[in-house]
Design goal:
This protein is α/β, with parallel strands linked by helices. It has two domains: about 200 residues, 3-Layer(aba) Sandwich (Rossmann fold), CATH 3.40.50.2000; about 160 residues, Rossmann fold. Helix content is about 40%, strand content about 15%. It is elongated. One of its GO terms (molecular function) is hexosyltransferase activity.
């Protein structure tokens, strides 16, 4: 098949949508398909042409400053879309690049699949406007409108499927979890891991690890509060926080104010090296409730780490309490969960739903929707 992936964010950017789209493209190409990526141009990608990847000049909008919006010149890109002779268009965003994909699909009668990645109603605080909470109904309406333009919608968990139905999305919704490259997470650089361990003071003790964006909705402040109780109880523990984001300074101040001894913030790290950071941990922790699937939880499990995470419907197919980790709500359950995990046998077998599994399920959706579209045209 000739497939067009339309996304506002893509490698080398580091986030769930960029990583998912990057893995999907690589897995589909490995299966023999031709994949085009249409995305935003960001700093560092201006002079690095890549086959079948088209980067559109972009800006950082005032209302959401840590994201890029492509400046689409529609006539040019519609012509480009015709030249690609696509069998299916798969949008990964509801914003400018996604709207471009939708319009190309409509103009040339190409089946349109949309992946709904983000629970936008959990992120309205990023819009720098008064009373941003009042934007939630607008976000729901716009999400439903875009999804209903598609011929079918892919979501990573049943939690998101149910949410879209509550928004009045009437298109078929397919639950397809994002896969991982299992070889990546079992292939760390031992020398680099030891260098990082020394750099962050992790030579001894049991290390709790968070990897992800440092943002309000991730509730990392709660993890720090709960971790402080472990230190106060005399546990020989470390807390390593990997990633960057708008609340990093606030979290570092919290750690100083609480006089936490064994905590380190790495800042942003290259995605190509992330397996080395998972290798630093003994236990992955998160208090987020805004996940659509918790991709980092799966990465941790693929690295052989147990998980201690805030209970959430998106984890129904990920967390098996007492086997690969524990769920919690509040400090008491966090501490109980920590102790229960410490009692588990060491050395969990790495587990992963692979990138090839992911691509095969997505491909099955493409074929089903394409067949339906052909029947309707007949």
């Amino acid at each position: 098949m000739r497939i067009g992936l339309f996304t506002d964010t893509y490698y080398p950017e580091i986030n769930g949508v960029a990583n998912s789209t990057y893995m999907l493209r690589n897995a589909l190409e490995a299966m023999g398909h031709t994949v085009y990526v249409i995305t935003s141009r960001v700093s560092g990608t201006e002079s690095s042409p890549e086959e079948h990847i088209y980067r559109i000049p972009s800006i950082k909008p005032y209302l959401v400053k840590d994201r890029h919006l492509a400046l689409v010149v529609e006539p040019y890109w519609k012509h480009k879309g015709k030249q690609m002779e696509l069998d299916v268009i798969h949008t990964q965003t509801e914003f400018t690049v996604g709207m471009l994909g939708m319009r190309i699909a409509q103009k040339f009668g190409i089946p349109l699949v949309h992946s709904y990645h983000t629970m936008y109603e959990d992120y309205t605080h990023y819009f720098h406007v008064p009373k941003s909470e009042k934007l939630k109904p607008v976000v729901r309406m716009l999400s439903a409108k875009f999804c209903n333009y598609a011929d079918g919608v892919i979501v990573p968990t049943d939690k998101v499927r149910k949410k879209l139905h509550s928004y009045k999305v009437y298109r078929d919704v397919y639950v397809v979890p994002t896969g991982l490259d299992p070889a990546k997470y079992g292939n760390c650089d031992a020398n680099e891991v030891e260098r990082l361990r020394a750099r962050y003071g992790l030579e001894s003790g049991y290390t709790l690890l968070y990897i992800g964006r440092l943002a309000e909705e991730k509730n990392i402040d709660q993890v720090i509060d709960h971790y402080k109780k472990l230190e106060d109880a005399g546990e020989d523990v470390n807390l390593l926080i990997v990633g960057d984001g708008p609340v990093r300074g606030k979290l570092e101040k919290q750690a100083r104010d609480l006089r936490i001894r064994n905590i380190a913030f790495t800042g942003a790290v290259p995605w190509e090296e992330i397996q080395n950071y998972y290798a630093l941990g003994d236990l992955f922790v998160s208090a987020s409730t805004s996940e659509t699937q918790g991709l980092t939880y799966n990465e941790a499990l693929a690295s052989g780490l147990p998980i201690l995470v805030r209970r959430d419907p998106c984890l129904e197919q990920v967390l098996r309490e007492g086997e690969n980790g524990m769920g919690f709500v509040g400090e008491e359950e966090f501490l109980k969960g920590y102790r229960a995990i410490r009692a588990l046998p060491e050395g969990l077998a790495p587990e992963a739903y692979t990138d090839r599994d992911f691509a095969q399920e997505v491909l099955a959706v493409y074929k089903e929707i394409s067949s339906e579209a052909m029947r309707h045209r007949a």
